[in-house]
């Protein structure tokens, strides 16, 4: 009772008390980030530590890796988004993981490989590329991938951007596959200071553009930084959202921008030139 009487004056002074919708809208318009941990499925303990991270961190699994089915099932049960981390040909000719798609494949070989990969990762709702600095710059192969993803709709694609010459996101958009791209690699350098620096860069980008997406790996140092930083996000005014939600937010932004651009374009067309 004492708490109630104590709270009422505060509540009356708070505008959010009168307009809960506005408060909700404000919360929903807070900058949003997504984090994907990929290269998962090879190590059980590291994978379990990823699944224990707070919030909707997405987990991307290598197809046919030993612990992929077990960890993917647990991730799904824990409310985490599950993705296929699709191995692709790279320019540096590093050895390819099982289930890789390569430049010399026929369309039929390519499609049946990706289908088998998808089937080996239970609950997969999206795909991002593992390596792929060679394949993601080839529009023909990306077209095969996006057409297949269209047929397995709804599936989203995240371009890991392992080369600046990638056309993957563009081809996804042209074929109606919801897609986004990696803005930050958290742990290109395995050093706590550097990983923390990249995490803060992710937050800065989200504040600037509204949304931002990071990819990290199940290394001890990366996980330690995330265990420490994720619980602090809320007090910093940043939302951690599933990748599918981040893509929806980006599509809404794109739509708003297009609409306002076409209106201003029409206004400019209709207005008489002032002499
Ligand atoms: Zn990878």
Structural account:
The chain is α/β, with parallel strands linked by helices. The chain has a single domain, classed as Glycoside hydrolase/deacetylase (TIM Barrel, Alpha-Beta Barrel). Helix content is 48%, strand content 16%. It has eleven helices and nine strands. The chain has helices at residues 2-13, 15-18, 20-28, 44-51, 68-77, 107-120, 139-151, 168-174, 192-209, 220-229, 243-270, and strands at residues 32-40, 58-61, 82-88, 124-131, 156-159, 179-181, 184-185, 211-216, 239-240. Zinc ion (ZN) binds at residues 38-39, 85, 130. Zinc ion (ZN) binds next to strand 1.
Keywords:
TIM Barrel, disordered N terminus, 275 residues, alpha/beta, single chain, 9-stranded parallel β-sheet, binds zinc ion
- How many domain regions? 1
In the CATH scheme, what's the topology name? TIM Barrel
Query: Nearest-angstrom radius of gyration?
Result: 22 Å
Q: Per CATH, which architecture?
A: Alpha-Beta Barrel
CATH class: Alpha Beta
Strand content: 15-25%
Task: Figure out the total of helices.
Answer: 11
Mean pLDDT: 88
Biggest sheet character: 9 strands, parallel
Helix content: 40-55%
Shape: globular
CATH superfamily: Glycoside hydrolase/deacetylase
Q: In sequence order, what are the helices and strands, one letter per element?
A: HHHEHEHEHEHEHEEHEHEH
The unreliable regions are 1-21
Structure class: alpha/beta
Bound molecules: zinc ion
DSSP strand tally: 9
Q: Any chance you could write out the topology, listing elements then pairs?
A:
Elements: H1 2-13, H2 15-18, H3 20-28, E1 32-40, H4 44-51, E2 58-61, H5 68-77, E3 82-88, H6 107-120, E4 124-131, H7 139-151, E5 156-159, H8 168-174, E6 179-181, E7 184-185, H9 192-209, E8 211-216, H10 220-229, E9 239-240, H11 243-270
Parallel strand pairs: 1-2, 1-8, 1-9, 2-3, 3-4, 4-5, 5-6, 7-8
The structure holds zinc ion (ZN).
Residues 38-39, 85, 130 line the site of zinc ion.
């Amino acid at each position: 009772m004492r708490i109630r009487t104590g709270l009422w004056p505060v509540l009356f002074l708070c505008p959010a008390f009168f307009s809960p919708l506005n408060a909700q809208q404000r919360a929903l318009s807070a900058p949003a980030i997504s984090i994907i941990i990929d290269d998962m499925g090879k190590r059980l303990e590291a994978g379990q530590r990823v699944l224990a991270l707070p919030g909707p961190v997405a987990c991307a699994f290598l197809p046919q890796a030993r612990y992929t089915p077990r960890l993917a099932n647990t991730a799904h049960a824990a409310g985490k988004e599950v993705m296929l981390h699709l191995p692709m040909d790279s320019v540096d000719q590093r050895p390819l993981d099982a289930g890789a798609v390569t430049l010399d494949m026929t369309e039929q070989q390519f499609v049946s490989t990706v289908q088998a990969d998808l089937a080996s990762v239970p609950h997969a709702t999206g795909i991002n590329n593992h390596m792929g600095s060679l394949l993601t710059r080839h529009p023909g192969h990306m077209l095969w991938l996006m057409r297949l993803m269209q047929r397995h709709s709804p599936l989203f694609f995240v371009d890991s951007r392992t080369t600046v010459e990638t056309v993957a996101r563009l081809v996804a958009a042209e074929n109606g596959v919801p897609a986004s791209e990696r803005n930050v690699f958290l742990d290109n350098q395995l050093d706590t200071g550097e990983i923390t620096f990249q995490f803060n860069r992710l937050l800065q980008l989200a504040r600037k553009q509204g949304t931002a997406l990071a990819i990290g790996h199940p290394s001890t140092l990366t996980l330690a930084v995330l265990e420490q930083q994720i619980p602090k996000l809320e007090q910093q005014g940043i939302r951690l959202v599933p990748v599918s939600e981040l893509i929806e937010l980006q599509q809404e932004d794109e739509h708003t921008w297009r609409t306002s651009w076409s209106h201003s374009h029409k206004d400019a067309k209709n207005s008489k030139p002032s002499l």
